[in-house]
Amino acid sequence: MPKVKDEGLAGKGKDSIEWARAHMPVLSEIARRFLKERPLDGLRIAASMHVTKETAVLMLALRDGGARIFLSPSNPLSTQDDVAAALAEEGIEVYAWRGMSESEYFWAIEECLKADPDFTMDDGGDLTVMAHEKGYAERIAGGTEETTTGVLRLMALERDGKLRYPVIAVNNAETKRNFDNVYGTGQSTIDGILRATNIMIAGKWFVVAGYGYVGRGIANRARGMGAKVIVTEVDPIRALMAAMDGFIVMPMREAAKLGDIFVTATGNSGVIKAEHVSSMKDGAILANAGHFDVEVSVKDLELMSLAKRDLRENLREYLLPNGKRVYLLAEGRLVNLVAAEGHPSEVMDMSFANQALSIEYLVKERGKLPAKVIPVPRWIDSEVARIKLRSMGIEIDSLTKEQEEYLRSWRI
Amino acid sequence: MPKVKDEGLAGKGKDSIEWARAHMPVLSEIARRFLKERPLDGLRIAASMHVTKETAVLMLALRDGGARIFLSPSNPLSTQDDVAAALAEEGIEVYAWRGMSESEYFWAIEECLKADPDFTMDDGGDLTVMAHEKGYAERIAGGTEETTTGVLRLMALERDGKLRYPVIAVNNAETKRNFDNVYGTGQSTIDGILRATNIMIAGKWFVVAGYGYVGRGIANRARGMGAKVIVTEVDPIRALMAAMDGFIVMPMREAAKLGDIFVTATGNSGVIKAEHVSSMKDGAILANAGHFDVEVSVKDLELMSLAKRDLRENLREYLLPNGKRVYLLAEGRLVNLVAAEGHPSEVMDMSFANQALSIEYLVKERGKLPAKVIPVPRWIDSEVARIKLRSMGIEIDSLTKEQEEYLRSWRI
Amino acid sequence: MPKVKDEGLAGKGKDSIEWARAHMPVLSEIARRFLKERPLDGLRIAASMHVTKETAVLMLALRDGGARIFLSPSNPLSTQDDVAAALAEEGIEVYAWRGMSESEYFWAIEECLKADPDFTMDDGGDLTVMAHEKGYAERIAGGTEETTTGVLRLMALERDGKLRYPVIAVNNAETKRNFDNVYGTGQSTIDGILRATNIMIAGKWFVVAGYGYVGRGIANRARGMGAKVIVTEVDPIRALMAAMDGFIVMPMREAAKLGDIFVTATGNSGVIKAEHVSSMKDGAILANAGHFDVEVSVKDLELMSLAKRDLRENLREYLLPNGKRVYLLAEGRLVNLVAAEGHPSEVMDMSFANQALSIEYLVKERGKLPAKVIPVPRWIDSEVARIKLRSMGIEIDSLTKEQEEYLRSWRI
Amino acid sequence: MPKVKDEGLAGKGKDSIEWARAHMPVLSEIARRFLKERPLDGLRIAASMHVTKETAVLMLALRDGGARIFLSPSNPLSTQDDVAAALAEEGIEVYAWRGMSESEYFWAIEECLKADPDFTMDDGGDLTVMAHEKGYAERIAGGTEETTTGVLRLMALERDGKLRYPVIAVNNAETKRNFDNVYGTGQSTIDGILRATNIMIAGKWFVVAGYGYVGRGIANRARGMGAKVIVTEVDPIRALMAAMDGFIVMPMREAAKLGDIFVTATGNSGVIKAEHVSSMKDGAILANAGHFDVEVSVKDLELMSLAKRDLRENLREYLLPNGKRVYLLAEGRLVNLVAAEGHPSEVMDMSFANQALSIEYLVKERGKLPAKVIPVPRWIDSEVARIKLRSMGIEIDSLTKEQEEYLRSWRI
């Protein structure tokens, strides 16, 4: 049985969804077409997504396209309960509330899989992996995956020869990865830190672990707020790029001693561990912007601290044996989703337009695609950018015939 | 009778104040000295300040110095009720709750004046002006004023020959105006806009009205978040500075057509009026970062709109006759204080250290200062900066004897 | 017969090369190894490269590796005559002087091809294309190409089924394209504009045509100097990225009316034509940062103008029929190479380390590689970054065994 | 007898002056008025200014106003010989060539004083101080001073009770100090470093000594070019401002170990001395942007080094006893003027418009002003900004009557 926290919140949720939709012109245009063309008629989709106002706009677009939707969260803490209630009222089958236990979280995902879906839509890979581990994958025709973390997991699954159906790596679309991961996480991570702490960023040492798409976005926004930004990396090329971008690059072991604020964005585990925490300054603040809550080792914090208490919402103080205190935001989970509201609608517009068009593509190509992690077709990417620019009132140049010819030539 | 919203919130308020104090090392050091030296013993202070966690740290420092404090808000919407409760429990006489009516607001200020204060501490000038208009000024020995707006009002009062006691323009201290107004308002205005709207700032047209200390701070932070920033000004020198800083300068009448987000920071009234609103794009967002709620003409909005509704907290939609909608944040009041938590503690640390030391200076110089708006003594300014740097672990150079001599010389 | 402008300049050229080498630690380390291992012993290399102090360090490294070098320029205006003289003295066979005519330029390239080279090293594609058009290609074992423009030409050649030997696209190495094209051209383009004009950049409208690697670098540096930056593009995804990076995006036809300074960086032709020039402001400045002098249509300028004169070195004034004047820098050729000294050594260090290691790779794999445009092997890329970081004194993290394992796993 | 290097350079000088004038619209407008009104008719002006193309535009404007001009340089290395020749041809009495000895430099200044001037126009204070030391001051009616350094010297002279005539501190005009010192020196210092070294700035540690107007400008431009910027200061308030602006603040003794590039901008002497140089990295680059060549102690460098040589123009290598090499730019003199061309015309336009209007003001108020360092009248400042904005095509708002009234009011 679908389940949300409080159906009475539906009204507030609807206002919230309407506000999001007003800032998602690309997805709105797709939704209008879906309503007319009904390309998903009769299909079932199992989704594991952060249940936010932007996800709601996507779910309703898929419904308008004819699909029946089963929605579970992709993080126990990221559900907006008013939105969940509004979706339930709109006929989406929602299994989500903020503050689920781990077992409730996996229960919710499995409920969606039990609904016999044609397609999966995943954020982080938990749904897809469970589909494969628990035998649901055989009857599924295809899926999409939203995040870097999820794509890496599914590529590992593919490498192990176990992937059973085609999954479109929505994350890797240029109009997703170059925007959502960079500008979306950049802004919303700063937002989450401010809501959780209200501290001054200007003049602080701000350590960003990882200089991928997400890390780059955060580092730039932190600098834009006046911080002195340190980057840690394991990849020499990315490290060099950070250095040339004017950031200070050093190993985490050195950064740990300097930092006032730490944000992890690596897609890896154990980036900040006991050995680092021990050398931190009194008052250091730790946050994570990567998909899983393993980048800052919460386990290490729990083991090493003498006491803990919650000082503000999403702000937990740990007292260390050396007398110092460190502060963990949002329990080490995605700080932008837990302490703030996740990415702004404008950027989710692009990511989710890719989602909607990828599902439509999976339907059209049903049975023809290999059981691999496959890229978003280039035309989808360009189409999303084109509609977005138009919605922003931005016109661009186009190639003249002479220019197209010039680009094709190689003669002197 | 002192009055707060709910005494039961005191516990939460205390946590909040503790968090603020941990980020206010300068004021904390002064408070420790005050507790030992008791420079304010037996004195009464009437204050009209935003009742936030940072103000609480100041009030408690003054109490530790021996003063009895009567505290009213300086804006009907900016009180943090948990902090007010905590202060009440600590013995501060508080007349403040969030969402006061205008008459309650002025009642609260007058209650503080009725307490027969020796000194006033003001934010915006309402307390000081009322003291003069209602005959309390005669028995008051001095005061301080926190804001640009307040200082301008008191200078007008002085020009009219009506100022009755010396008021220290804390706002004009370098360690106040160059920090609080620039970095504090810069960050917290962005914070307020994000909390109220969760919109994307990158790629948006962001219009800042006014390029004084506050406007400059906001323009820089907006750019740091990826916005295309337009500045409007009435002063040619400031306008030119904005242009050379890489901002686009134009009259509001032109900016109105382009802007996605508008923030006023002029200290003036009627900066955004009906004529501007009429030409705005559908979805335009209006916010104010100046002291009074007159910079965006709320009256014009109310008069011209066909309907209004609240879509999110602090986000009011106005439907215009031309079918477009504009969104007013925080009812046109200080967006950083109403929709977020005001300036970060770190920067209030400096402003309020100036406040505490200025009050101490007024006590020492009681009876010797003219009834004028007077500057913060330079040594206070330097002292605040010096303690702040030390608390940040920053060491600086000092002049050698040879260098001091060099600076004094004029020979070839 | 090899030919330079003035052999007497060799001394000055050597100082210049020494200064460059001091800032090229990666290439220097490779040169030291080459001298010991002599991997290029007995081989002949025909190169068409900008004859600058950095190229000299590369040529001498190849010579130290055992090769005999025949060097022609890759642009008639970019040769540094003192460097050419120094190289001649060091035994490199140089056919280059600044200000060659077009026929001299192609003569120089063909002289190098006549030397029966084993490998070609090209910058822009003129050498490789001539090798194919004039029948030298059959006896050549492989080549490298330095630029975006050259790679595009050779891919067109490959598409037409005419490429006869493997060419490594050095341009596409991450340690080349993400650094040289972005940071190198970014800085040196600003440098070239300043040397040619000495105008103020702050407060100006600065139009960048193209938002690829090069365009992005220029746009960022122009903003860093205080300009209001406009970007024009033909690709919707890049255009959107520019917009989200805070730049103003519009078609050239609109930008033409606003711009004070224009820089083309598209790899295409006819980006700024008569129709644009006609609508420009009096005093507009035109520069090109793309490989060929066709991006700003010099032909159009010549045809439409009533008069022209040279006001400063590299600054030509054109008087238009409408009475306005526009200024063309460096005859529309690469402004960073003609009006300044090209990329800084530090960044050429990385590009040319890729060149040296790619030539060594071609030698080792001789006969085994397909006649295609092929990428730089990933290990070369990483190795270049690693040495560079070490030379900058930057240490980075490395993955722990647990982390490597975590990255391989996909389970929940 | 007036003297320049080579009268044959006058043609080139005229082109150069014409280019400058085209970018100096405010001064050009004043010159047109001067030519009509002849406010300086019959007066003699002795000037000690950097003899650049922009100064030439000012001198010719003063001449158009009716004055007879005697011009000496304000730095032995900053004269542009072609400009000097052009001015001589135009009837200005010029005593200036690049590379004067110290005694020639002071001879030139005294020649101008011997011409019995009514007014002095100074840059750095050498002329004014000599006028006072050698007894010329008595017959002089007033003067102007262009720089921070000069104003500080003249204030010291005034403090010592020795100033004999009123000197207008042109430097302190807002339209001078906030523009010329910040944006002008910021850009031209970067320009000078690039021309002298062609090194990469991105990724480098860039140390700026002093965070006054000039230091702030340089620090911002260095950051804009991708450097990691360190600031050193002696003033705690400025140090704190640098920290909040995101710069790294530390004492020079620590910065010396880290820096790749050092620029002094303090107005003081001995900022970089032997003790600092000894701890620098091999290859460190030293430059000065302050008025006198005493900020980097050239004397210390000369004393401590084992050998020196010139590697490029304006780039001198010093070999230290520890085997390391440091590089001094432009002999420690103003790097922007010696290695590049000084401030861009656009910003000198404003400074020199203040000069021209200040001289006119001195003429009008002759005999009425006290023998003090006096500020530029506020109306001149605003007027300069207003004309500048107009020339840039920028329109701004003006206060409505209601707004003016609002600003005058203090009531609740």
UniProtKB/TrEMBL annotation, chains A, B, C, D:
Catalysed reactions, as listed in the record: S-adenosyl-L-homocysteine + H2O = L-homocysteine + adenosine
Entry GO CC: cytosol
Gene that produces this protein: ahcY
PROSITE patterns on file: ADOHCYASE_1, ADOHCYASE_2
SUPFAM superfamilies in the record: Formate/glycerate dehydrogenase catalytic domain-like, NAD(P)-binding Rossmann-fold domains
Swiss-Prot/TrEMBL keywords: Cytoplasm, Hydrolase, NAD, One-carbon metabolism
Note on how the cofactor is bound: Binds 1 NAD(+) per subunit.
Molecular function via GO: adenosylhomocysteinase activity
Gene3D superfamilies to which the protein is assigned, alphabetical: Adenosylhomocysteinase-like, NAD(P)-binding Rossmann-like Domain
Membrane-spanning ranges: none
Protein name according to UniProt: Adenosylhomocysteinase
GO biological process, one term: S-adenosylmethionine cycle
Described purpose of this protein according to its UniProt entry: May play a key role in the regulation of the intracellular concentration of adenosylhomocysteine.
HAMAP family to which the protein is assigned, alphabetical: AdoHcyase
EC number: 3.13.2.1
Family: Belongs to the adenosylhomocysteinase family.
Chain sites annotated for binding substrate: 52, 123, 146, 176, 180
